Predict the structure.
Amino acid sequence: MTSQSRNEPAPRRPAAPQQPDQPRQPTSGEPSAEELRERIEHTRDELGRTVEALAAKADVKAQAREKTAAVKEQATEKAALVTGRIRGGVDHAVHLAAEKTLDPVFDKARRAALLTVGAALIVFLLVRGNRRRHQ
C-alpha cells in the first residue's frame, strides 16, 4: 500500500484559471479537443464494425442460407457442365450411328420401294393385258 489511506481522497492538482468564453488550451503533452473527437469517432467506427462482425458470426440462420446458396450455385454449374458433356456425347453417338446404319437402312428401303413399284407395274400390265384379251 501507499502512504495514503484508501479513504483519503487523492490530492487535486490546481486548475489553471480559465476564461468562461475561451476553451481550455491543452498543455504540451495533452491532445487537443479536435484530436480527442477524431479518436472517439475512430473508436466508435471500429466498435461498430466489431459488433457487426460478431452479430454476423452469431447469426447461424444467415450463415446456413449463404452456405446453401453457394452449394446450390455450385451444383447448378456442375449440372450444366455435365449436361453439356452428355449432349455432346449423344450428338456424337447419333452422328456415328447415322453414318453406320442409315445408309444400309435407306438402301434397303429404296430397294423395297423399287421392288414394290416394279411389282405393281407388272400387276397393272398383266391385268390390263387380260382385259384386252377378254374384250
User: Anything to note?
Assistant: The CA atoms of residues 26 and 33 lie 8 Å apart. The two ends are 151 Å apart (CA to CA). The helical segments are 33-58, 60-134. The mean pLDDT is 78.
